[in-house]
Amino acid sequence: MIKQPFNNIKLGAFVLSGLVFIILLLYLIGKNQHLFGTSFHLKVRVDNVQGLKPGNNVRFAGIDVGTVKKINIINDSVIEIDMVIEEEVQSVIRKNAMVSIKTDGLVGNKVIEITSAKLSAPTVENGDMLTPKKLIDTDEMLRTLNKTNNDLAIITENLKITVTRINNSKAVWNLLNDESIPKNLNQSLANIRKVTQTAGFMANDLQLMVSGVKSGKGTLGKIITDTVIAANINETILSIQAISKHADTLVKQLNATVADVQNNLNNGPGTVNALLKDSSLTNKLQLSLLNIQKGTDGFNQNMEALKHNFFFRGYFKRLEKEKIKANGKTQTN
Amino acid sequence: MDNPTALKLFLDEVGDISRFAGKFLTQWFKPRYEIAEFVRQCFVIGYQSLPLVGLTGFIMGLVLTLQLRPSMVDYGVESQLPAIVGIAIVREIGPVITALIFAGKIGSSIGAELGSMKVTEQIDAMEVSGTNPFKYLVVSRVMAAICMLPILAVLSDAISLYGAYLGVNIKGATSFRLFWMLVIDNLAFNDVLPAFIKTFFFGFAVGIIGCYKGYNSKKGTEGVGHSANSAVVISSVVIFIIDLLAVQITDFLGFN
Question: Is the pTM of this model over 0.80?
Answer without folding.
Answer: no
